[in-house]
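Problem 3 from the worked examples.
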Amino acid sequence: MPKMQAMRLTEAAAGRVKDLVLASGKDSSGLRVGVTKGGCAGMEYTMEFVDEPGKFDEIVEDRGVRVFIDAKAVLYLIGTEMDYVTDKLSARFVFNNPNQTSACGCGESIALTPARPEALGTA
């Protein structure tokens, strides 16, 4: 049975990641996504370009881009769809995360519950 991919990207998100890597002028091999404690709801998403994954990062290859998930964030991001949304006032990455239990009013901070083993197919 093939391993379940921890996160997937929409076409818009993959296109934006490709554009950002090209604009950086570096041969970055991917984008690392994680979560950190902070904000009024308790946690925030983090993103940074890296040349190689961390030793225990989860590697997601989707739509021609590589995204690395910080090992400490994998259980919080299982089943997440990463999108890139543009409207009249802003353009931003959006995480459609089934593990999100609430968010603050400004949308910068979220509350997450780790995925249960059943979601991993290991129960």
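Problem 4, a separate protein:
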Amino acid sequence: MNKQEIRRAYLKKRSSLSAETVRRWSEAIEKHILQFVCENNFQVILAYAAFRNEPETLHLLETLLAQGKTVALPKCGKNGQMTMYRVTDISSLQEGAYGILEPAKGEIILPEESELVLVPGCAFSRENERLGYGGGYYDRYLPACAEAVLVGICYEMCMADALPVDAFDVTMDYIITEKGLVNKV
């Protein structure tokens, strides 16, 4: 199967999840992320607002903000570029490109300032490869986060043994699922 077919298959699996399953698995993922943040004392975290049955992130974002962390979310431009803006209040997020919640323009957090980047995807592999949504936003952005730890976030059912990758695809340092941290390869 090619990337498009694999993407469609994983999105179909994910869309079939019940709201209760998404809630339960998202709570477990959040617990593992918070533990990882605490153990590594990350202060500047680039994250995302969940979309289309991705693991929920709004409560996680509120918790990180309450802990005094600097949190930034992406705003996607029409030119295929992504900019991270600091978020200080979840209620200020608004629907943006593709219907995803994003911050209004404000303070930009540069990629080199990031310590941890939480990355969404359709699927991830046991080799920490990521299959995104096909827009290339993260593959263009992540190379500039040279000092940051990259963590893919997904459900265990979205883990593959291997995925097709291109030279521009960025590999994650870790993956976190509802079952915990998938070790660095």
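Solution to problem 4. The longest helix spans residues 19-40. The chain has a mean pLDDT of 93.
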